[in-house]
Every structure is written in structure tokens, then in C-alpha cells.
Predict the structure.
Amino acid sequence: MLIKRIVLSLMLLNMSGLLLAQSDVSLFWRKDSLQQTEIFSAEGDLYRLVGHHGPAIENKFMGLRLYFNHSGAIDVYSKQIHRLELEQAHWYPSDKMQKEQGFGCDEYKVGSTVGLGGINLWDGEQVIKLTATQGRTARVSTNKKGASMEMQAKGIAYKGEMVDITIRVSVNNKDREAKVEAICTSGHKVQFLTGVNRHPGNSVINQDGRIGVWGRHPADVSKAPILIGGGMKYKPSDFAIKRVTEDAVQLISKPAKKLKTIIVSAGEKEKELNTEQAFFDYVKNF
């Protein structure tokens, strides 16, 4: 009898853990689709060889991925239903999955920007991409509270020196937001460049400590792009320059060894933040 109770308790504990899981990660080689916790490239570019072009992470509200190349960009997977989807969708659900099963979509277009909260460097005159001359490593991990992914680029030429930069993106099981951390692991002080990209016709809020963008992305993978919101919360005192370009609201940090921002996204097909007003109200207060 005691053994049965123990077995039943373990089964219930395991089931509760599955029910509480609200975040996940994904990193795999396209050739075999086997999940990995770490992938290294001496050349620094595995964009076409790894699944969804790099490590991916999700909470039940959105998916995010870091491109396995020099771009430093973060891309968004928008959801209709609050649930985990990467294990089945691998970022690219079929039309049937979207229409009949309510799967999300890849319609956030990054282009040549850092996307939603991605990281580049600034040398005082121009943007420096994270071109790794000594290798690039992607990692993913999960724990009881959430999940994280990171990309480390080693040997980036910056102001006459070689620096190493790690981008880490984390989500927890409780809320929508994701934390983005940029760390110069070689110990140098650098100027990080981040921000939120935008497209013609998008609405923008641009306040101290908050950036919000809402509108359609001209995604070439979709015949009917949806309205998508991208938002960022940041500490104004961390930044020296804030500017609006043709395709982004950009932030350039003061010289620092590390930087942290919070990002969030939503789309018109979900039930909560599915309008410009609702999303901007959230961004102003989260």
C-alpha cells in the first residue's frame, strides 16, 4: 500500500510539473533534427545549417530566436493561443496547422536591423556587427522557473581591439516579458546598440524608458501579414544616444561591460493584447 502511494505521488508530481511548464527552448541541426544544448562554429555562421537559423526560446505568449550569424538580431514568433509550440512547429507551422489548430506564425521581419532588442556595437561613428573571428557558440537551457538561450561571439574587431560579446535571452513561467542581457565577456567597456525595428505605416511610442511599435511587417513568407507589436523597457541612464532611423528606434549605450533590457511582443490574433491601444497601454506600464 505504501509503495502504491509513493508511486501515485510521484506520478502526480510529474504531471503537475508538465502542467506548470510554460517555457521551452529549441536548438538542433537541420540534418537530423536532434535537440542540442550547445552548438559551436569556428567560422561563426551556421544560419543555414541549424534549425530555425539559430537557438530559439518561448514562453506561452511568444517565441524568440537569435540568428546564428553576425547580425546579433532577435526575431519573433507570434502566437494565437497561449501555449508552447516550438516542439511541434519548429518555428515554421504549415498553413493547415495555423488555420485548423491555431498555431502561430513567423511574420515579424527583422531585415537589416537588430529586430526586437537584439544587440550590435557602436564605435562612435558606425554600427559594428558581431562578426566573430574566433568562433561563435549557441547554448540553451531550462530550469524550474523558466528558460534561456545565448549566443557568444569571440574575437569581434572593435576600436582596434578584439572583444567577446554574449547575448542572453531569458523568459520565466509567470509573465510575457523576456530579459535581454548583453555582456562583454572579454572585460572591455563597449557601446552596445539595441532597439526595436519598425516598418512604414507602423505606429510608434517613444518615451523615456519605453519603446513601442505596432503594425504590419512586410513579411515575404505571408500572403496576409498580421498586426504585430514589439515593445522594450530600458533604463534611460544606461544610454547616451536615442535616435529614430528609417527602420528602427535605436538606443546606443554609454561605455559599459554589460547591459539589460526587457522586451515583449503580441499580435492581433491573440485574445489579450490584440489591438494597438491595448498593446501600447501594456508597454507604458509593464
